[in-house]
Design goal:
The complex is a heterotrimer of chains A (about 375), B (about 270) and C (about 325).
Chain A lengths: L11 H15 L14 E4 L4 H18 L3 E4 L3 H13 L8 E5 H9 L30 E12 L24 E4 L6 H7 L12 H12 L3 E3 L1 H9 L5 E5 H9 L5 E3 L6 E8 L6 H14 L2 H11 L24 H5 L2 E2 L2 H20 L1
Parallel strand pairs in A: 1-2, 1-3, 5-6, 5-7, 9-10
Antiparallel strand pairs in A: 3-9, 4-7, 4-8, 4-9
Chain B lengths: L4 H29 L16 H8 L1 H34 L5 H8 L1 H4 L2 H14 L7 H25 L2 H9 L4 H30 L2 H6 L7 H11 L4 H23 L10
Helix pairs in contact in B: 1-12, 2-12, 3-7, 3-9, 7-9, 8-9, 9-12
Chain C lengths: L1 H24 L6 H29 L3 E2 L4 E2 L6 H8 L1 H34 L3 H15 L3 H12 L4 H8 L11 H25 L3 H9 L4 H12 L1 H16 L3 H6 L7 H11 L3 H26 L12
Antiparallel strand pairs in C: 1-2
Helix pairs in contact in C: 2-14, 3-14, 4-5, 4-8, 4-11, 5-8, 8-11, 9-10, 11-14, 13-14
The chains are: A alpha/beta (about 375), B mainly alpha (about 270), C mainly alpha (about 325).
């Protein structure tokens, strides 16, 4: 924080000039025409700690710089997807300007050809390679950070220390006291390994994972979404969960004792990204791109990802103090070696199959 | 009350159990909304109005409330003519295919809301009207229309057709009869139905979820979304807005037609 | 005063104009059409649903192409085949049907005495109180009430806090099937009572007195006199509660803890979570068919019910 501007700091005029320069660079080959500012920009976001981080890290700064208010929309990611698809297909203006999305879902939308190409954003230069989407032409989306689906637990329930294996989920002791995402996201590949399979089995032989789930079902885990985990920990409903570290950290920051760990089977690491739906009026698309560009700037990346406690795609940023050496904040190749990363194309091709299978087991 | 002591004990035990069960969430929510703490809980952690204060500051909620009222007005306004005429038609006229009409008019209840919502989302999208606010009101009208038809047809079947015949015999034309005899007779039904339609539209969330987006989000959807993001006591505070609206509706209903209308036999 | 005098004449002129218009549009000979004209707006409005359903039926015959995430152009029965092949859909359907049956039975059991007390109490104030107790939750909405229950029944909720205070430990009161059923019963109770009221109000108290005067105790009076006479109301309430429960979304989502989905959740998941509109559409069609079959069954057993829209004079 200390290095952030001393005294009066950058005054508003230089900031505005800075924006003008960025704007010029963006329009580079074309004639620079002033794009009318929209009344507001709507960014679909996740709520809770996630939304707060986006607001403080990206939205507020962007508004200060450009004067355009940014509104966060908490429509569920899966729900906005078909709404955007239909709007693009039917030539209507899409309901949002920027979608903050999982890379898998964003890639699906890119395959559906509803994303604006972002290749001309100046801030793409110099980002870590992970920012570039795989298996797609150009930049229909940009990844913004990585995250880990950790094993979060209440230390009170584990007097002998952190759980070393995901198999504890099957322990009778945690009957009705564990939780997973309601579609198994973040755990499906891990279940394969915990069930005795290997990485090579994914995606062709998922059976060990499904077998693991069948045993787990007998232990009646709760199934929910991001904010559920935080409130379940807060309300003492669960002892252990597979959830993104952000949710566990949010519970911890509200004064609840929650720890997390990477058990021997590993944890799934993944990325989220931003993309812009096609079909926006020209000026709104322009400013939406400015917003995405801003989110990739050093300042925004540091604040946004810092608040989330996740490793950004902007290189060389400091690790938040409470996450030094934390398994949920991988930085070195050794860190990543403990984690399980599934290539995006495999996830995209198999997500609906895995979700359906997960459902079949747990709703069956 | 007739009958034995055992009967009255049984009836009133069940009734009071129902009253408590029906009221418990309401009471708890009102209580929780006045908490001074950070999370929803009961009994509240100290008393304060901070969450009401927080609510007023959030234009997201106030905007959503206005949209909800607009949508509900559209819903009610569309439902009155459609419902009144349909009720009169089914009560007054010997229509052919009556069973088929019945089944058809009950489609809003037999088609699950999730299906109705998605179906309308798809069609409104094709019509390029998805994203506007008024179609939401029309959609809500469609799914609750049977309530309006019932309310009016209850009044209409109570109306003696001889009255209309008498008016006609005295030389009144059909329009005249409609406005001076029929309409006044079914007015209590219209008021009841209109209030029901309004309040159901204010509450409806699943179909609204499909028909709104971030530019047109209405209050129930906003609440649902905020439940999914952060469960803070402002949720309880908004819920109290609903409780107040509900009280107002009940009071109005009582003043205009008398709550006893629901006790009338048909 | 002038305006007050001209207003009625304007009114009469308007009426006359309308009469003339009506005569021209619908000659008296063709008055049979009037009923249909009256019905037209409602038919058109409900038509919106019919068209929406048409789209869904159309979708149900196209499978998802994972390469583009669009439905294939080719028609196929693949989605229906998937429904039949995957046992999960049978289980979810069974859970919903069982839930609907349980909720209907229990709700009617509670709603009947409530409605009875309301129609028979001599105290107008009590009657009003019972009506308000009914209307308030009815007007508050499902999502909000479900959250009320989370506060009451949660691990650190009111009930568990009391139990723990008494040294009795805590209970798992939410996130299970029982909680969903309970929440649904509480949600459906006002619907059921409101539909029972007219039927019960129609039963003259004299009939009961006569029965009891002849020596029947109240239980058999109820069984042999009141219940049969209230049948139209019971069937009407039963149909509404059954179909609303069968297709409910919010209660299982909020109180079920994620593993007690009803059919509506499965439809939602197909459309949104796995973006498979074709499969979701097929599920929707199946649900509509099953729901309609039950309604038709009820109607055929019952004859006329309080649900009848209009209907012959009874």
């Amino acid at each position: 924080m200390a290095k952030r501007i001393t005294g009066t700091g950058i005054n508003r005029r230089t900031l505005l000039q800075g924006t003008a320069v960025t704007a010029g660079a963006l329009m580079a080959p074309n004639i620079v025409i002033a794009q009318e500012k929209p009344k507001e920009l709507i960014v679909r976001a996740w709520g809770g700690a996630w939304g707060e981080a986006l607001k403080s890290g990206v939205a507020d700064g962007f508004t200060a710089e450009t004067g355009i208010p940014v509104r966060l929309d908490f429509t569920e990611d899966n729900e906005i997807k078909p709404k955007i698809w239909a709007a693009v297909d039917q030539g209507r203006v899409p309901p949002i300007h920027v979608n903050w999305d999982t890379t898998t879902n964003a890639t699906i939308s890119a395959r559906r050809d509803v994303c604006v190409d972002l290749s001309d954003l100046p801030n793409l230069k110099g980002l870590l390679p992970i920012a570039k989407p795989t298996g797609l032409e150009g930049w229909p989306l940009v990844n913004t950070y990585s995250y880990v689906y950790v094993c979060a637990y209440r230390p009170e329930a584990f007097p002998e220390g952190a759980p070393t294996t995901w198999k504890v989920l099957l322990d009778e002791k945690f009957k009705k006291r564990s939780a997973l995402y309601d579609d198994g996201i973040g755990f499906n590949p891990i279940a394969v390994i915990a069930g005795g399979g290997t990485l090579k089995d994914i995606p062709d032989n998922m059976e060990p994972g499904w077998e693991f789930y069948r045993k787990l079902k007998a232990n009646e885990p709760l199934l929910g979404e991001d904010p559920d985990f935080t409130s379940w920990f807060q309300n003492g409903e669960i002892d252990i969960a597979c959830t993104i570290s952000v949710n566990a950290r949010a519970a911890r920051e509200s004064g609840i004792e929650v720890e997390w760990t990477v058990p021997e089977e590993g944890c799934k690491v993944d990325t989220d990204g931003l993309w812009i739906p096609r079909g926006l009026p020209e000026n709104e698309e322009y400013w939406a791109k400015q917003l995405v560009n801003y989110a990739l700037s050093k300042d925004a990346q540091e604040k946004w990802c810092g608040a989330l406690g996740l490793p950004p795609v902007y290189p060389g940023l400091p690790v938040p103090a409470d996450l030094q050496g934390d398994p949920a904040y991988p930085t070195t190749p050794e860190d990543y070696a403990k984690l399980v990363s599934i290539p995006s194309p495999i996830l995209v091709d198999n997500q609906p199959i895995w979700f359906a299978k997960f459902n079949e087991i747990f709703q069956g | 009350m007739t009958g034995s002591r055992g009967k009255s004990v049984f009836i009133w035990t069940v009734t009071w159990f129902c009253v408590i069960t029906l009221s418990a969430p309401t009471v708890i929510i009102i209580g929780a909304s006045f908490t001074a703490g950070e999370i929803i809980q009961f009994p509240p952690d100290g008393l304060s109005l901070r969450w009401y204060d927080a609510l007023i500051g959030q234009t997201a909620f106030t905007d959503a409330l206005w949209r909800t009222l607009y949508v509900s007005l559209v819903c009610t306004a569309v439902s009155i003519p459609a419902g009144v005429l349909a009720a009169l038609a089914t009560v007054r006229y010997r229509l052919r295919f009556r069973p088929a009409i019945q089944v058809y008019l009950l489609l809003p209840f037999t088609i699950p809301l999730v299906v109705s919502g998605i179906g309308m989302m798809v069609w409104f999208g094709e019509l390029r009207i998805l994203g506007a606010l008024w179609p939401v009101g029309v959609g809500l009208c469609v799914i609750n229309l049977p309530f309006m038809i019932w309310a009016v047809s209850a009044s209409a079947s109570a109306l003696d057709p001889e009255l209309e015949n008498a008016a006609a015999n005295c030389g009144a034309g059909p329009v005249m009869v409609f406005f001076t005899v029929t309409l006044p007779a079914v007015t209590p039904g219209i008021i009841t139905g209109a209030l029901l339609m309004f309040i159901l539209a204010v509450n409806e969330f699943l179909v609204s979820l499909f028909l709104t987006d971030s530019r047109t989000v209405t209050l129930p959807v906003q609440i649902y979304n905020s439940i999914r993001s952060v469960i803070t006591p402002d949720l309880a505070a908004i819920s109290v807005v609903y409780i107040v609206l509900a009280l107002a509706a009940v009071w109005l209903l009582d003043r205009l037609v008398g709550l006893e209308i629901f006790l009338k036999s048909r | 005063m002038a305006s007050a005098q001209s207003a009625p004449s304007l009114f009469w002129r308007l009426i006359d104009g309308l009469e003339a218009l009506l005569r021209r549009l619908v000659p008296p000979k063709r008055r049979g059409v009037t009923g249909w004209l009256f019905l037209a707006p409602a038919l058109l409005l409900v038509g919106i649903l019919a068209v929406g359903l048409g789209y869904i039926i159309e979708y149900s015959f196209h499978e998802l192409d994972i390469a583009t995430y669009r439905l294939k152009d080719a028609y196929s029965l693949g989605n229906y085949q998937t429904l039949i092949e995957r046992p999960v859909y049978r289980n979810v359907l069974w859970r919903s049907l069982l839930g609907a049956a349980l909720v209907t039975a229990i709700t009617l059991f509670f709603a009947f005495p409530y409605a009875y007390a309301m129609t028979r109490t001599r105290s107008a104030a009590m009657r009003k109180f019972l009506l308000i107790a009914l209307f308030l939750p009815f007007f508050i909405g499902q999502v909000v009430r479900a959250y009320g229950w989370l506060i009451i029944l949660g691990k650190q909720g009111v009930i568990n806090a009391m139990l723990a205070g008494l040294g009795l430990g805590t209970l798992d009161l939410i996130y299970n099937y029982g909680a969903v059923i309970f929440g649904l019963i509480q949600y459906m109770l006002p619907f059921a009572v409101l539909l029972l009221l007219p039927a019960l109000a129609a039963i003259p108290e004299d009939v009961e007195m006569a029965s009891e005067g002849l020596g029947a105790n109240w239980v058999s009076t109820f069984r042999h006199v009141v219940l049969p006479m209230a049948k139209p109301g019971l069937i009407g309430a039963g149909i509404v509660v059954f179909t609303l429960t069968l297709t409910d979304f919010a209660m299982p989502e909020i109180l079920g803890g994620g593993t007690t989905d009803f059919v509506a959740s499965a439809i939602y998941d197909s459309f949104f979570q796995i973006s498979n509109a074709g499969l979701g559409a097929a599920l929707s069609v199946a649900l509509v068919l099953i729901g309609s079959a039950f309604v038709a069954l009820f109607f055929s057993i019952a004859g006329s019910t309080t649900l009848d829209i209009g209907g012959e004079k009874k």
